[in-house]
TrEMBL record:
An example Gene Ontology biological process: 'de novo' UMP biosynthetic process
Name of the protein described by the UniProt record: Orotidine 5'-phosphate decarboxylase
Originating organism: Saccharothrix coeruleofusca
Pathway(s) of this molecule: Pyrimidine metabolism; UMP biosynthesis via de novo pathway; UMP from orotate: step 2/2
Catalyzed reaction equations: orotidine 5'-phosphate + H(+) = UMP + CO2
InterPro entries linked to this entry: Aldolase_TIM (IPR013785), OMPdecase_AS (IPR018089), OMPdecase_type-2 (IPR011995), OMPdeCOase_dom (IPR001754), RibuloseP-bd_barrel (IPR011060)
Active site: 95
Orotidine 5'-phosphate decarboxylase domain: residues covered: 16-262
Record-linked Pfam families: OMPdecase
The gene coding this protein: pyrF
Length: 272
């Protein structure tokens, strides 16, 4: 089955929330864990247990694992496998983007069957040109996987690049939206190319009507965006939107049941 179909089915079953696994040093400390690969492992596997059979999508942030070197990457491999076994879709937050021929190597790492770091989807940066991402889009489609391409990010610095206008008067972010829409055209119930649009934006300033794909909305929770902000930006029913929260859920650890009920509470707050 294609990623767009698998995602729609997962959201129908488990609701639209994505929970991020971001093992910040401060969170490891507040969970009483050591600042090393064993602390990372305890943290991440607790998250797998709490969220893997509860939410539709879980998003491990790669850098926090890479920071612990090869042992950290080994933990990430276990997290990917554990989440998959528990029935969650895994969105690996790696924000990759490179010239096309190197992009093929990233695609082989994250989007190919048999790779130890293969996920259901990966975040990509389109700022070497959307076309440079083609090898990743092709690998994703071939393996029933997806991608989420940064369009308008949640951080205030993003606007200086993403809101810049091209010769045709479209913003860079709108051009990214339009390319994703082209890739998703005709797919049912939605395509495999998602976008990232920050929940913290003061106004959307984008036409998403032709996207026909999922929108990951970070900035919800710890960065200040509320459910009301999400509805104001994306419309009252949040159709196709995957709000994602990391720290605001993770601060309820280390108790597994508390983490799970925090995720449930946040997910229920998104229901109409
Ligand atoms: O692609 C992302 O996931 C992402 C894009 C963006 O525009 N803003 C953003 O915050 N993120 C990620 O989403 C997560 C947000 O974490 P919290 O602010 O703790 O909920 C982090 O892992 C960020 O790297």
């Amino acid at each position: 089955m294609r990623f767009g179909e698998r995602l729609a089915a997962a959201v129908a079953r488990r609701g639209p929330l994505c929970v991020g696994i971001d093992p910040h040093p401060g969170l490891l400390a507040s969970w009483g864990l050591p600042q090393d690969a064993s602390g990372l492992e305890r943290f991440a596997l607790t998250c797998v247990e709490a969220f893997g059979d509860e939410v539709a999508v879980v998003k491990p942030q790669s850098a926090f694992f890479e920071a612990h070197g090869s042992r950290g990457v080994a933990v990430l491999e276990r997290v990917l496998a554990g989440l998959r076994d528990a029935g969650a879709l895994v969105l690996l937050d790696a924000k990759r983007g490179d010239i096309g021929s190197t992009m093929a190597a990233y695609a082989a790492a994250y989007l190919a069957d048999g790779s130890p770091l293969a996920a259901d989807a990966v975040t990509l940066s389109p700022y070497l040109g959307f076309g440079s991402l083609a090898p990743a889009l092709e690998a994703a489609a071939a393996g029933g996987r997806g991608v989420f391409v940064l369009a308008a990010t949640s951080n205030p610095e993003g606007a200086s690049v993403q809101r810049a206008e091209g010769a045709d008067g479209r913003s860079v972010a709108q051009a990214v939206v339009d390319e994703a829409a082209r890739a998703n055209a005709g797919a049912h119930p939605q395509g495999d190319v998602g976008l990232v649009v920050g929940a913290t934006l003061a106004e959307l300033g984008l036409d998403l009507s032709a996207l026909n794909g999922p929108v990951l909305a970070p900035g919800f929770g710890a960065q200040g965006a509320t459910v009301a902000d999400l509805r104001a930006l994306f419309g009252p029913d949040l159709r196709g939107v995957l709000p994602t929260s990391s720290r605001d859920v993770l601060r309820h650890g280390p108790d597994t049941a508390s983490l799970r009920s925090a995720a449930r509470r946040v997910r229920d707050s998104l229901a109409l």
